[in-house]
Specification:
Length: 218
């Protein structure tokens, strides 16, 4: 079973994915996380990716599908629950993905959940985001359910938390524009395929988690 998590940056896709992975063993594939790991390697490619991420632009479709494929092929797509968080990000990526599924994984059940939130709240969430550079866990500086127990330190591995390079306001605005131009058309695309589920995510993380789990178990 494949669950595509669609939605603008900062709508909480990574946060819900973390909970579904921890509590229900859903496999979480985030192309953003894969690229951030690539940046850490500091290779020539890593440096190139870093510049693109920092500006808030999209990585090219070819490289993105290559890194996605390397990850997706680790799993049994028929038996496991797989979350695709942040892929596809434009119509061409969706077509590449469906062509791959049609060719190699016929009859796979696919749903796309669209995380809906106003830009004002998105900006508040992103400018207060902290992440653990070691395990990737996502925090919010002040939100009760999401703030670290010890300020600026990861609850799980005690690593000092950092802010994401693309959580500067200029980069956030750029990502929101790119979302409107490139990613939003996927809402209609998935709707036409009959696999779209709309979800208002202006709620607490635990409530969102419960709602998403219910959708997935239906
Ligand atoms: P990616 O990592 O996917 O970033 P994004 O889409 O911009 O989304 P975010 O991770 O910023 O938001 P999220 O929805 O996961 O929210 P989160 O749970 O963190 O991609 C990064 C970059 O990689 C892209 O810009 C691009 O360059 C590249 N890339 C990735 N995929 C690509 C692709 N397919 N093609 C090309 N390029 C690609 O939560 C956000 C904040 O809100 C946190 O502080 C969190 O604590 C807080 N929060 C979460 N839920 C709640 C809640 N319910 N209430 C209050 N606060 C909440
Ligand atoms: Mg994310």
């Amino acid at each position: 079973m494949i669950y595509i998590f669609l939605g603008a940056p900062g709508t909480g896709k990574g946060t819900v994915s973390y909970l579904l992975n921890k509590k229900n063993n859903y496999k979480h594939i985030s192309t953003g996380n894969i690229f951030r790991d690539l940046v850490k390697k500091n290779t020539k490619l890593g440096k190139k990716v870093r510049e693109i991420l920092k500006k808030g632009e999209l990585i090219n479709n070819e490289l993105t599908f290559k890194v996605l494929l390397e990850e997706i092929e680790k799993y049994n797509l028929k038996k496991e629950n797989i979350i695709l968080d942040g892929y596809p990000r434009n119509i061409e990526q969706a077509e590449i993905l469906f062509e791959y599924f049609n060719r190699y994984h016929k009859d796979l059940k696919i749903s796309a959940i669209n995380f809906e939130l106003r830009n004002k709240i998105i900006i508040e969430r992103l400018t207060n985001r902290l992440i653990c550079p070691f395990c990737g866990k996502i925090y919010h500086k002040t939100f009760p359910e999401l703030k670290p127990k010890k300020e600026w330190y990861c609850d799980d591995d005690k690593t000092k938390l950092i802010t994401r390079e693309d959580d500067k306001i200029k980069s956030i605005k750029k990502r929101l524009v790119i979302y409107d131009e490139k990613t939003k058309p996927l809402i209609e695309y998935f709707s036409e395929k009959g696999i779209l589920i709309e979800l208002d995510v202006n709620d607490t993380p635990n409530n969102i988690y419960e709602k998403v789990l219910k959708i997935c178990q239906n």
